[in-house]
Amino acid sequence: MHGRVETMRNAGQPVIDFSIAISHFPAPKAVLDAVAGAIERERTMPYTSVVGALDVRARLADKLRKENGVDATTDEIIVTNGAKQALYQALYVMSDPGDTVLVFKPHWPAYVATAQLLGLKPVLADLPEAITPALLDGLGEPDIVIINNPHNPTGKVYTRQELEYVRAWVERIGARVIVDESYEHLIFEGEHVSLAALGDWRGTGVVTIFSASQSYAMMGWRVGFALAPAVVVEAMQTLQGPITAAAPHLSQVAADVAFATGAPRAMMADYRDRRDLAVRLFADVSWMVMHAPASGPYLWGDVRSLTMDSIGFSEALLEERQVAVMPGDALGVPGFIRLGYISDDVATLRDGIRRIIEFGDAWTGRAREE
After folding, report:
1. Would the pLDDT of 44 be above 80?
2. Is 0.85 topped by the overall pTM?
């Protein structure tokens, strides 16, 4: 959908794009200043080791200790070209073809696509409101479990107790775990807890993924990092070397400074206002259920009372009203739509929501006539 928006805009069509979350905030000033300084000082950008510059990894290890309560060494950290590269490499080195990968739906599309690309078998389970031991016991014994905390797109923030249940379960069944914590700072309600802080993460085989993209409005910088047992990092490095080698030097400079800045409080205050505005605007819509998410840059709208054909709904909305949303089918759950509410200005947000409501009302009218 985002690609189609770009094509339409290049053809001169004004489109409001809610299909993806691209912050209207710039990257933090400290990041921009650091990168500008590096360009001025260094001129020629050096290669770093494939896992990332040693001083950068040392400061990321410090961030993990202070913010996440996880003790880590530099040989347990690898800097990657965004979260997707970390996910691909972690899945690659932790699995054999045919292994099962548990993914809760709705899900970030990359989880399933990457598993399929590697010859793995995704096992999809509905994300519950609350994780319980009984629920986990009913999921069988997958080889790998992917947890997204905070969750895209529902905004669920796992409680410490829920993560304790997950930890005990995966240790009992011997599953490896990948925890995507890319939205760790994008929390409105609740507290972020890292699964790796709750026990012997090395022994369990937990890989934790972080990204600067959303937490620091650095979508185009393509930089993140992973925490993993040293033997896993070594294997991920062996894979990353012939694919991309190290993340770009300037992106590492940017990530180094970004992850040291902590929670982006001003940005999150703005996002909270936008979230609350959008939820209020949808509140009286009879054909949509829209809850205020506890985290994240997305709204997850339930349109099942209107239609289960969320692809058809999204296609027609783009064609007739020039608003792009992500159909829930792409995230494993038809009958829902995902809206990125952090792009552009508030007037555009209001206008896009108005168009969606008018489109859905007209859809309802057509259904009644039929």
Report:
1. no
2. yes
